[in-house]
């Protein structure tokens, strides 16, 4: 930008985004009011502004390389190994809904039982209520063929595992690793690093 702007282009774009967000919020309040409906309708504008600000923020020279903000790892505790080929679906609760989910991404665990690229590399994730679902039934079917002594056809109890977690606005720049330790009769999960 040339001329009378004393700020860097990224600063000017940030200022413009903030002003546009204010205009959008005023229009939403006029249309939907200040209650829950207005807050739900305003959420996409907040998310768009957050994404824009995250993209404009300069990265420190010593910052680690970008990676998927949400990753997972599945360990099969029955055979004591990573679980390759487990189908995984990541969903986010639809804004303003207690029951509707939007599919965000999907993939399969690699030979080490990991999915490191569930989302595009970045240093920001949209705040919200997430659910990651593991298709353990399909994996178990393969295990029954490969290890019939450990995985009897009648020994399937968890055909899928869904883990819900919440990312708050102040955590949007953190990394979330959601591992699953699984066997036919039990599973455990935790927030990894």
TrEMBL record:
What this protein catalyses is: 5-hydroxyisourate + H2O = 5-hydroxy-2-oxo-4-ureido-2,5-dihydro-1H-imidazole-5-carboxylate + H(+)
Protein name, please? hydroxyisourate hydrolase
Annotated keywords: Hydrolase, Purine metabolism
Q: Which InterPro entries match?
A: Hydroxyisourate_hydrolase, Thyroxine_BS, Transthyretin/HIU_hydrolase, Transthyretin/HIU_hydrolase_d, Transthyretin/HIU_hydrolase_sf
What's one GO MF term for it? hydroxyisourate hydrolase activity
Q: Is Iron there in the keyword field?
A: no
What Enzyme Commission number does this protein have?
Answer: 3.5.2.17
Q: Which CDD domains match?
A: TLP_HIUase
Function recorded in the entry: Catalyzes the hydrolysis of 5-hydroxyisourate (HIU) to 2-oxo-4-hydroxy-4-carboxy-5-ureidoimidazoline (OHCU).
> What family does this chain come from, according to its entry?
Belongs to the transthyretin family. 5-hydroxyisourate hydrolase subfamily.
Where does this protein come from, organism-wise?
Chlorella variabilis (Green alga)
Transmembrane regions listed in the UniProt entry: none
Annotated Transthyretin/hydroxyisourate hydrolase domain ranges read 70-192
Q: Which residues bind substrate?
A: 73, 114, 190
Enumerate the Gene Ontology biological process terms: purine nucleobase metabolic process
State the PANTHER family in the record: 5-HYDROXYISOURATE HYDROLASE, URICASE AND TRANSTHYRETIN-RELATED
First-level EC class? hydrolase
Q: What do we know about how this protein assembles, alone or with others?
A: Homotetramer.
| Keyword Hydrolase among record annotations | yes
